[in-house]
Design a protein that fits this description.
The mean pLDDT is about 95. The longest helix has 17 residues. The two termini are about 40 Å apart. The chain contains 18 helices and 14 strands. It has one domain: TIM Barrel. The chain is α/β, with parallel strands linked by helices. It has an 8-stranded parallel beta sheet with strand order 4-5-6-7-8-9-10-11. Strands 3-12-13-14 form a 4-stranded antiparallel beta sheet. It has a two-stranded antiparallel ribbon with strand order 1-2. A hairpin with a 2-residue loop joins β13 and β14.
Length: about 475
Protein backbone atom coordinates (compact mmCIF):
# COMPACT_ATOMS: atom_id res chain seq x y z
CA UNK A 1 0.00 0.00 0.00
CA UNK A 2 1.13 3.50 -0.75
CA UNK A 3 0.25 6.46 1.50
CA UNK A 4 -0.91 4.10 4.26
CA UNK A 5 -1.81 4.80 7.86
CA UNK A 6 -1.42 2.23 10.60
CA UNK A 7 -2.74 2.22 14.15
CA UNK A 8 -1.04 0.20 16.90
CA UNK A 9 -2.87 -0.67 20.09
CA UNK A 10 -1.70 -2.90 22.95
CA UNK A 11 1.30 -4.14 20.99
CA UNK A 12 -0.71 -5.25 17.98
CA UNK A 13 -1.67 -3.78 14.64
CA UNK A 14 -5.22 -2.53 15.22
CA UNK A 15 -6.01 -0.88 11.90
CA UNK A 16 -4.54 -0.31 8.45
CA UNK A 17 -6.07 2.35 6.23
CA UNK A 18 -5.45 4.79 3.43
CA UNK A 19 -7.34 7.40 5.41
CA UNK A 20 -5.62 9.38 8.19
CA UNK A 21 -5.71 7.80 11.64
CA UNK A 22 -5.14 9.64 14.92
CA UNK A 23 -3.53 8.46 18.12
CA UNK A 24 -1.76 9.61 21.28
CA UNK A 25 1.61 9.32 19.55
CA UNK A 26 2.07 9.92 15.84
CA UNK A 27 5.17 8.83 13.92
CA UNK A 28 5.63 10.42 10.51
CA UNK A 29 6.77 7.82 8.00
CA UNK A 30 6.53 10.00 4.92
CA UNK A 31 8.85 8.65 2.23
CA UNK A 32 9.65 5.60 4.32
CA UNK A 33 8.91 1.87 3.99
CA UNK A 34 7.15 -0.09 6.74
CA UNK A 35 7.81 -3.84 6.68
CA UNK A 36 7.49 -6.83 9.05
CA UNK A 37 10.30 -7.53 11.48
CA UNK A 38 12.69 -10.29 10.38
CA UNK A 39 12.79 -13.88 11.59
CA UNK A 40 16.06 -15.77 12.06
CA UNK A 41 14.92 -19.36 12.39
CA UNK A 42 18.33 -20.76 13.36
CA UNK A 43 20.27 -19.20 16.23
CA UNK A 44 21.96 -20.34 19.44
CA UNK A 45 21.44 -17.93 22.31
CA UNK A 46 23.25 -19.94 24.97
CA UNK A 47 26.76 -18.74 24.13
CA UNK A 48 28.80 -15.63 23.41
CA UNK A 49 30.20 -15.80 19.90
CA UNK A 50 33.94 -16.38 19.97
CA UNK A 51 34.07 -17.55 23.60
CA UNK A 52 34.07 -21.03 25.08
CA UNK A 53 32.27 -21.58 28.41
CA UNK A 54 35.67 -21.71 30.10
CA UNK A 55 36.66 -18.35 28.59
CA UNK A 56 33.35 -16.82 29.66
CA UNK A 57 34.02 -17.98 33.22
CA UNK A 58 37.50 -16.44 33.10
CA UNK A 59 36.17 -13.07 31.87
CA UNK A 60 32.75 -12.64 33.51
CA UNK A 61 32.47 -8.86 32.98
CA UNK A 62 33.21 -9.08 29.25
CA UNK A 63 30.83 -12.02 28.86
CA UNK A 64 28.03 -10.33 30.82
CA UNK A 65 28.26 -7.15 28.74
CA UNK A 66 28.22 -9.25 25.57
CA UNK A 67 25.17 -11.23 26.67
CA UNK A 68 23.32 -8.03 27.49
CA UNK A 69 24.15 -6.62 24.04
CA UNK A 70 23.34 -9.74 21.99
CA UNK A 71 19.52 -9.26 22.06
CA UNK A 72 19.95 -5.60 21.10
CA UNK A 73 22.26 -6.53 18.23
CA UNK A 74 19.65 -8.80 16.69
CA UNK A 75 17.14 -5.95 16.95
CA UNK A 76 19.67 -3.48 15.50
CA UNK A 77 19.59 -5.46 12.25
CA UNK A 78 15.82 -5.90 12.34
CA UNK A 79 15.46 -9.41 13.78
CA UNK A 80 12.42 -9.30 16.04
CA UNK A 81 11.85 -13.10 16.21
CA UNK A 82 14.43 -15.82 16.83
CA UNK A 83 14.30 -19.63 16.96
CA UNK A 84 16.99 -21.24 19.10
CA UNK A 85 17.53 -24.63 17.48
CA UNK A 86 19.21 -26.41 20.37
CA UNK A 87 18.00 -24.67 23.49
CA UNK A 88 17.63 -25.52 27.15
CA UNK A 89 15.05 -23.96 29.47
CA UNK A 90 17.61 -22.33 31.76
CA UNK A 91 19.48 -20.59 28.96
CA UNK A 92 16.25 -19.52 27.26
CA UNK A 93 15.00 -18.03 30.54
CA UNK A 94 18.18 -15.98 30.92
CA UNK A 95 17.80 -14.53 27.42
CA UNK A 96 14.14 -13.72 28.02
CA UNK A 97 15.00 -11.93 31.26
CA UNK A 98 16.47 -9.02 29.32
CA UNK A 99 13.90 -6.27 29.02
CA UNK A 100 14.79 -5.39 25.42
CA UNK A 101 15.02 -8.50 23.24
CA UNK A 102 13.49 -10.24 20.23
CA UNK A 103 10.74 -12.80 20.74
CA UNK A 104 12.40 -16.17 21.28
CA UNK A 105 11.19 -19.73 20.69
CA UNK A 106 13.30 -22.84 21.11
CA UNK A 107 13.73 -26.37 19.82
CA UNK A 108 14.97 -29.11 22.07
CA UNK A 109 18.00 -30.83 20.55
CA UNK A 110 17.61 -34.63 20.44
CA UNK A 111 20.90 -36.35 19.57
CA UNK A 112 21.40 -40.11 19.75
CA UNK A 113 23.99 -41.62 22.06
CA UNK A 114 27.50 -40.75 20.79
CA UNK A 115 26.01 -38.90 17.81
CA UNK A 116 26.53 -35.34 16.64
CA UNK A 117 26.91 -32.92 18.39
CA UNK A 118 27.62 -34.87 21.58
CA UNK A 119 30.82 -36.22 20.01
CA UNK A 120 32.44 -32.86 20.75
CA UNK A 121 31.77 -33.27 24.48
CA UNK A 122 33.98 -35.38 26.75
CA UNK A 123 32.51 -38.47 28.35
CA UNK A 124 30.47 -38.69 30.55
CA UNK A 125 29.36 -35.06 29.99
CA UNK A 126 27.89 -35.94 26.61
CA UNK A 127 25.36 -38.26 28.26
CA UNK A 128 23.94 -35.56 30.52
CA UNK A 129 21.84 -33.92 27.81
CA UNK A 130 18.17 -34.01 28.87
CA UNK A 131 16.86 -34.89 25.42
CA UNK A 132 19.36 -37.63 24.57
CA UNK A 133 17.82 -40.56 22.67
CA UNK A 134 18.66 -44.22 23.28
CA UNK A 135 17.74 -46.03 20.09
CA UNK A 136 15.59 -49.14 20.02
CA UNK A 137 17.76 -52.27 20.21
CA UNK A 138 20.60 -50.40 21.92
CA UNK A 139 19.09 -50.28 25.41
CA UNK A 140 21.60 -52.77 26.85
CA UNK A 141 24.49 -50.53 25.80
CA UNK A 142 22.99 -47.35 27.29
CA UNK A 143 25.56 -45.24 29.19
CA UNK A 144 25.71 -45.60 32.94
CA UNK A 145 23.05 -43.50 34.62
CA UNK A 146 20.90 -43.19 31.48
CA UNK A 147 17.53 -44.92 31.78
CA UNK A 148 16.53 -46.08 28.29
CA UNK A 149 12.83 -45.83 29.14
CA UNK A 150 13.26 -42.11 29.85
CA UNK A 151 15.13 -41.53 26.59
CA UNK A 152 12.83 -42.95 23.93
CA UNK A 153 11.73 -40.54 21.19
CA UNK A 154 8.28 -40.33 22.80
CA UNK A 155 9.62 -39.64 26.30
CA UNK A 156 12.03 -37.01 24.99
CA UNK A 157 9.27 -35.16 23.12
CA UNK A 158 7.07 -35.21 26.23
CA UNK A 159 9.92 -33.71 28.26
CA UNK A 160 10.58 -31.02 25.66
CA UNK A 161 6.92 -30.07 25.54
CA UNK A 162 6.80 -29.80 29.33
CA UNK A 163 9.91 -27.60 29.23
CA UNK A 164 8.21 -25.15 26.87
CA UNK A 165 9.96 -26.13 23.65
CA UNK A 166 8.24 -25.03 20.46
CA UNK A 167 9.92 -27.55 18.18
CA UNK A 168 12.29 -30.53 18.01
CA UNK A 169 15.72 -30.78 16.42
CA UNK A 170 17.49 -33.99 15.52
CA UNK A 171 20.89 -34.57 13.93
CA UNK A 172 22.29 -36.71 11.13
CA UNK A 173 26.01 -36.16 10.66
CA UNK A 174 28.04 -39.18 9.65
CA UNK A 175 31.40 -37.39 9.46
CA UNK A 176 33.86 -37.28 12.34
CA UNK A 177 35.69 -34.11 11.17
CA UNK A 178 39.03 -35.65 12.03
CA UNK A 179 37.92 -37.09 15.37
CA UNK A 180 38.77 -40.60 16.50
CA UNK A 181 35.42 -41.61 18.01
CA UNK A 182 32.82 -43.35 15.90
CA UNK A 183 29.99 -40.97 15.10
CA UNK A 184 26.63 -42.65 15.64
CA UNK A 185 23.70 -41.66 13.44
CA UNK A 186 19.99 -42.12 14.12
CA UNK A 187 18.08 -45.03 12.61
CA UNK A 188 15.17 -44.43 10.27
CA UNK A 189 12.70 -45.83 12.80
CA UNK A 190 14.14 -43.58 15.53
CA UNK A 191 13.47 -40.37 13.65
CA UNK A 192 10.14 -41.55 12.29
CA UNK A 193 9.06 -42.19 15.88
CA UNK A 194 10.40 -38.75 16.86
CA UNK A 195 8.46 -37.10 14.03
CA UNK A 196 5.26 -38.95 14.93
CA UNK A 197 5.51 -37.97 18.60
CA UNK A 198 6.38 -34.37 17.75
CA UNK A 199 3.52 -33.97 15.28
CA UNK A 200 1.08 -35.42 17.80
CA UNK A 201 2.33 -32.73 20.19
CA UNK A 202 1.91 -30.07 17.44
CA UNK A 203 5.68 -29.53 17.23
CA UNK A 204 7.80 -29.16 14.10
CA UNK A 205 10.90 -31.27 13.54
CA UNK A 206 14.16 -29.79 12.24
CA UNK A 207 17.17 -31.88 11.25
CA UNK A 208 20.83 -30.92 11.11
CA UNK A 209 21.81 -32.40 7.73
CA UNK A 210 24.68 -31.14 5.56
CA UNK A 211 25.37 -34.08 3.22
CA UNK A 212 23.57 -35.84 0.39
CA UNK A 213 23.21 -38.92 2.59
CA UNK A 214 21.83 -36.85 5.46
CA UNK A 215 19.27 -35.05 3.32
CA UNK A 216 18.16 -38.33 1.73
CA UNK A 217 17.60 -39.52 5.30
CA UNK A 218 15.63 -36.35 6.04
CA UNK A 219 13.32 -37.01 3.09
CA UNK A 220 12.85 -40.66 4.11
CA UNK A 221 11.94 -39.84 7.72
CA UNK A 222 9.49 -37.01 7.00
CA UNK A 223 10.99 -34.15 9.01
CA UNK A 224 9.68 -30.63 8.42
CA UNK A 225 12.79 -28.47 7.98
CA UNK A 226 16.37 -29.20 6.94
CA UNK A 227 18.85 -27.03 8.81
CA UNK A 228 21.87 -26.21 6.61
CA UNK A 229 22.35 -26.24 2.89
CA UNK A 230 23.65 -29.26 1.03
CA UNK A 231 27.38 -28.61 1.28
CA UNK A 232 28.87 -32.12 1.22
CA UNK A 233 28.14 -34.41 -1.74
CA UNK A 234 28.94 -37.93 -0.55
CA UNK A 235 31.43 -39.55 -2.94
CA UNK A 236 31.04 -36.70 -5.43
CA UNK A 237 33.19 -34.03 -3.82
CA UNK A 238 35.08 -33.23 -7.01
CA UNK A 239 31.93 -32.53 -9.05
CA UNK A 240 31.62 -28.94 -10.30
CA UNK A 241 27.94 -29.14 -11.27
CA UNK A 242 24.90 -30.67 -9.60
CA UNK A 243 24.99 -34.45 -9.98
CA UNK A 244 21.93 -36.63 -10.67
CA UNK A 245 21.96 -37.82 -7.05
CA UNK A 246 22.03 -34.26 -5.69
CA UNK A 247 19.28 -33.13 -8.08
CA UNK A 248 17.13 -36.07 -7.08
CA UNK A 249 17.21 -35.33 -3.37
CA UNK A 250 16.67 -31.60 -3.95
CA UNK A 251 13.67 -32.36 -6.16
CA UNK A 252 12.27 -34.61 -3.42
CA UNK A 253 12.70 -31.83 -0.86
CA UNK A 254 10.92 -29.39 -3.17
CA UNK A 255 8.16 -31.87 -3.99
CA UNK A 256 7.44 -32.57 -0.32
CA UNK A 257 7.40 -28.85 0.54
CA UNK A 258 10.09 -29.23 3.19
CA UNK A 259 11.67 -26.11 4.64
CA UNK A 260 15.37 -25.60 3.81
CA UNK A 261 17.84 -23.25 5.51
CA UNK A 262 20.99 -22.46 3.47
CA UNK A 263 23.03 -20.99 6.40
CA UNK A 264 25.72 -19.91 3.93
CA UNK A 265 27.38 -17.53 6.37
CA UNK A 266 28.56 -20.42 8.55
CA UNK A 267 31.20 -21.33 5.97
CA UNK A 268 32.10 -17.73 5.31
CA UNK A 269 32.51 -17.26 9.05
CA UNK A 270 35.25 -19.90 9.10
CA UNK A 271 36.85 -18.22 6.11
CA UNK A 272 36.72 -14.78 7.72
CA UNK A 273 38.70 -15.97 10.74
CA UNK A 274 41.74 -15.48 8.49
CA UNK A 275 40.82 -12.01 7.21
CA UNK A 276 43.51 -9.76 8.74
CA UNK A 277 41.12 -6.79 8.55
CA UNK A 278 38.04 -8.46 9.98
CA UNK A 279 38.27 -7.05 13.51
CA UNK A 280 38.68 -3.55 12.06
CA UNK A 281 35.20 -3.70 10.50
CA UNK A 282 33.40 -0.65 11.95
CA UNK A 283 30.06 -2.52 11.99
CA UNK A 284 31.40 -4.74 14.76
CA UNK A 285 31.32 -1.72 17.06
CA UNK A 286 27.53 -1.60 16.68
CA UNK A 287 26.93 -5.22 17.71
CA UNK A 288 29.71 -6.10 20.15
CA UNK A 289 31.09 -4.35 23.25
CA UNK A 290 34.49 -2.79 22.62
CA UNK A 291 36.08 -4.86 25.39
CA UNK A 292 35.01 -8.08 23.66
CA UNK A 293 36.45 -6.98 20.31
CA UNK A 294 39.74 -6.19 22.01
CA UNK A 295 39.71 -9.58 23.74
CA UNK A 296 39.38 -11.27 20.33
CA UNK A 297 42.78 -9.78 19.44
CA UNK A 298 44.51 -11.47 22.38
CA UNK A 299 46.24 -14.88 22.16
CA UNK A 300 43.37 -16.34 24.19
CA UNK A 301 40.79 -14.83 21.86
CA UNK A 302 42.64 -16.31 18.87
CA UNK A 303 42.65 -19.89 20.18
CA UNK A 304 39.84 -21.12 17.93
CA UNK A 305 41.37 -19.31 14.94
CA UNK A 306 44.62 -21.18 15.59
CA UNK A 307 42.81 -24.48 16.08
CA UNK A 308 40.99 -24.13 12.75
CA UNK A 309 44.22 -23.14 11.02
CA UNK A 310 46.03 -26.23 12.27
CA UNK A 311 43.20 -28.42 10.99
CA UNK A 312 43.50 -27.53 7.30
CA UNK A 313 46.28 -25.06 6.42
CA UNK A 314 49.29 -26.58 4.63
CA UNK A 315 52.56 -25.93 6.47
CA UNK A 316 53.82 -23.61 3.73
CA UNK A 317 50.66 -21.49 3.95
CA UNK A 318 50.64 -21.48 7.76
CA UNK A 319 54.23 -20.18 7.71
CA UNK A 320 53.41 -17.31 5.31
CA UNK A 321 52.32 -13.80 6.29
CA UNK A 322 48.71 -12.93 7.15
CA UNK A 323 47.88 -11.46 3.73
CA UNK A 324 49.21 -14.49 1.85
CA UNK A 325 47.27 -16.82 4.16
CA UNK A 326 44.13 -14.79 3.54
CA UNK A 327 44.45 -15.09 -0.24
CA UNK A 328 44.95 -18.86 0.01
CA UNK A 329 42.00 -19.25 2.40
CA UNK A 330 39.72 -17.18 0.17
CA UNK A 331 40.48 -19.41 -2.80
CA UNK A 332 40.05 -22.54 -0.68
CA UNK A 333 36.62 -21.51 0.56
CA UNK A 334 35.46 -20.29 -2.83
CA UNK A 335 35.89 -23.87 -4.02
CA UNK A 336 34.65 -25.64 -0.88
CA UNK A 337 31.50 -23.50 -0.59
CA UNK A 338 30.57 -23.82 -4.27
CA UNK A 339 28.37 -26.93 -3.73
CA UNK A 340 26.31 -25.17 -1.06
CA UNK A 341 25.89 -22.09 -3.24
CA UNK A 342 24.84 -24.23 -6.21
CA UNK A 343 22.25 -26.21 -4.24
CA UNK A 344 20.85 -23.01 -2.70
CA UNK A 345 20.44 -21.52 -6.15
CA UNK A 346 18.72 -24.69 -7.40
CA UNK A 347 16.23 -24.69 -4.51
CA UNK A 348 15.40 -21.05 -5.09
CA UNK A 349 15.08 -21.33 -8.87
CA UNK A 350 12.72 -24.33 -8.53
CA UNK A 351 10.44 -22.74 -5.93
CA UNK A 352 11.80 -24.61 -2.93
CA UNK A 353 10.73 -23.45 0.52
CA UNK A 354 13.77 -21.33 1.34
CA UNK A 355 13.85 -20.20 4.99
CA UNK A 356 16.14 -17.58 6.48
CA UNK A 357 18.38 -18.90 9.25
CA UNK A 358 22.00 -18.19 10.11
CA UNK A 359 23.18 -20.69 12.77
CA UNK A 360 24.55 -17.79 14.84
CA UNK A 361 27.03 -18.64 16.28
CA UNK A 362 27.76 -22.03 14.76
CA UNK A 363 30.79 -22.64 17.04
CA UNK A 364 33.28 -20.43 18.95
CA UNK A 365 33.49 -18.11 15.92
CA UNK A 366 33.86 -14.41 16.57
CA UNK A 367 33.08 -14.04 12.86
CA UNK A 368 29.40 -14.94 13.48
CA UNK A 369 28.33 -11.77 15.35
CA UNK A 370 24.65 -11.50 16.35
CA UNK A 371 22.50 -9.55 13.92
CA UNK A 372 25.38 -8.63 11.64
CA UNK A 373 25.72 -12.30 10.74
CA UNK A 374 22.16 -12.16 9.42
CA UNK A 375 22.90 -9.06 7.37
CA UNK A 376 25.90 -10.85 5.84
CA UNK A 377 23.71 -13.90 5.11
CA UNK A 378 21.45 -11.61 3.09
CA UNK A 379 24.41 -10.66 0.90
CA UNK A 380 25.40 -14.33 0.57
CA UNK A 381 21.92 -15.28 -0.64
CA UNK A 382 21.81 -12.49 -3.18
CA UNK A 383 25.27 -13.56 -4.43
CA UNK A 384 23.90 -17.11 -4.77
CA UNK A 385 21.28 -15.82 -7.20
CA UNK A 386 18.33 -15.42 -4.84
CA UNK A 387 15.99 -12.64 -5.93
CA UNK A 388 15.36 -9.69 -3.63
CA UNK A 389 11.67 -10.64 -3.41
CA UNK A 390 12.44 -14.24 -2.41
CA UNK A 391 14.94 -13.01 0.18
CA UNK A 392 12.32 -10.64 1.60
CA UNK A 393 9.79 -13.47 1.83
CA UNK A 394 12.34 -15.84 3.41
CA UNK A 395 13.00 -13.22 6.10
CA UNK A 396 9.31 -12.67 6.79
CA UNK A 397 6.16 -14.50 5.67
CA UNK A 398 7.72 -17.71 4.30
CA UNK A 399 9.58 -18.23 7.57
CA UNK A 400 6.44 -17.37 9.57
CA UNK A 401 4.29 -19.84 7.62
CA UNK A 402 6.81 -22.66 7.86
CA UNK A 403 7.08 -22.06 11.61
CA UNK A 404 3.28 -21.82 11.99
CA UNK A 405 3.63 -18.31 13.38
CA UNK A 406 1.92 -16.53 10.50
CA UNK A 407 -1.14 -15.80 12.63
CA UNK A 408 1.12 -13.51 14.70
CA UNK A 409 3.94 -12.23 12.50
CA UNK A 410 5.27 -12.13 8.94
CA UNK A 411 3.05 -9.47 7.35
CA UNK A 412 1.77 -5.99 8.15
CA UNK A 413 -1.93 -6.52 8.76
CA UNK A 414 -4.50 -6.00 11.53
CA UNK A 415 -4.45 -8.49 14.37
CA UNK A 416 -0.75 -9.30 14.13
CA UNK A 417 2.02 -8.35 16.55
CA UNK A 418 3.39 -4.90 15.86
CA UNK A 419 6.95 -6.14 15.27
CA UNK A 420 7.84 -3.82 12.43
CA UNK A 421 10.71 -1.96 10.77
CA UNK A 422 10.70 1.54 9.30
CA UNK A 423 13.25 1.88 6.48
CA UNK A 424 14.44 4.78 4.34
CA UNK A 425 14.69 2.61 1.20
CA UNK A 426 12.76 -0.15 -0.59
CA UNK A 427 14.21 -3.63 0.06
CA UNK A 428 12.63 -4.93 -3.15
CA UNK A 429 14.87 -2.57 -5.09
CA UNK A 430 18.19 -3.12 -3.30
CA UNK A 431 19.58 -5.35 -0.56
CA UNK A 432 21.37 -2.26 0.77
CA UNK A 433 17.94 -1.01 1.87
CA UNK A 434 18.32 -3.28 4.90
CA UNK A 435 21.05 -0.90 6.08
CA UNK A 436 18.55 1.96 6.22
CA UNK A 437 16.49 0.86 9.23
CA UNK A 438 15.47 3.95 11.22
CA UNK A 439 13.06 2.55 13.79
CA UNK A 440 12.39 -0.92 15.17
CA UNK A 441 8.90 -1.52 16.58
CA UNK A 442 8.85 -4.28 19.18
CA UNK A 443 5.27 -5.12 20.16
CA UNK A 444 4.38 -1.57 19.20
CA UNK A 445 7.19 0.11 21.12
CA UNK A 446 9.21 2.34 18.77
CA UNK A 447 12.96 2.06 19.32
CA UNK A 448 15.50 4.19 17.50
CA UNK A 449 18.00 1.96 15.78
CA UNK A 450 20.87 4.09 17.06
CA UNK A 451 19.78 3.37 20.65
CA UNK A 452 20.35 -0.35 20.03
CA UNK A 453 23.98 0.04 18.99
CA UNK A 454 26.67 -1.26 21.34
CA UNK A 455 28.28 2.18 20.99
CA UNK A 456 25.30 3.72 22.78
CA UNK A 457 24.52 1.02 25.33
CA UNK A 458 25.48 1.37 28.97
CA UNK A 459 26.09 -2.21 30.06
CA UNK A 460 25.39 -3.25 33.62
CA UNK A 461 27.92 -6.14 33.39
CA UNK A 462 25.55 -8.41 35.27
CA UNK A 463 23.70 -11.47 34.09
CA UNK A 464 19.96 -11.66 34.91
Amino acid sequence: MQHAYLRIRDGRIAELSQQPLRGEMTIDGTGRYLIPGFIDSHVHTGSVNGMTPQQEAAHPDIAAAAREQIPRSYLYFGFTTLIDLDGFPEAIAKFKAYELRPDLYFCGGAPVVDGYPTNWDPKPQRYQRPYLIVQRGEESAAPEGVDPAAHTPEAVVDRMKADGAYCVKTFYDERSFGGTDKIAVPHVDTVRALVKAAHEAHMLVFIHALSTEAQEFAVETGVDVIAHGLSYWNGEGEATELTPRVRKVLDQIIGKGMGWQPTLQVGYGFRDLFDPQYLANPLLGDVLPAALIEWYRTPEGQQFHNQVGRSFLPESVAASDANARWEWVRAFYEKSLAPQTATTNYLAMHEGKLLFGTDTPSSPLYTNPPGLNGRMEMNDLIAAGISREKLFRALTIDNARALRLDDRIGTVEPGKDANLLLLRADPLQSVEAYDSIETVFLHGQPISRAALSARNTIHTSTTP
